[in-house]
Specification:
single chain; about 180 residues; alpha+beta; 5-stranded mixed sheet; 5-stranded antiparallel sheet; about 35% strand
Amino acid sequence: MGYLFRKLCFTIALGAAVHAAAHPTDGDTAQFVTTRLAVTGAVQHALNLSVADLRQLPAQKLGELPLLRQGGANAGQLANLKGVRLRDLLEQAAVVSRDHNDVKKMVVIATASDGYKVVFSWSELFNSPVGEGVLVYFEKDGQPLGDDEGRIAMVSSKDIRSGPRHVKWLQSIEVKKIVE
């Protein structure tokens, strides 16, 4: 399991580096706005969901969430979010698991339209409290998301430092087996 853990850590670090290099300035966000979310990869039913489709799924709400950067610095706060659990979307797509242990070798990669990527392990989403708090959201304070987050975004509210896995302009979720 050491190899898998090192590979996962490398993937997360790479995503943070890509985000730091590609993150747009506040005035240049309209080009990144996303209106659909694709769920692909090792799933039985690929999904291509609009905001309206997401609104039809069982909704979850999140109150106040401080955003802390990787180093612990305050990056602001999110409040009054409405969306769906990432885990619920993955269950709808039906992750492919031919062998009992396949899921233990899978990661879920969330990608934004600006190239930012974050990674979750299957076990993290389905066997830990983290999975309860990963929200794909489309509404804040009772309003659709603005250009600064796109129409679809994601946050991991159970992370100690939630900022690194706050994905603005969410466009895809890919399920991938990373070792044989």
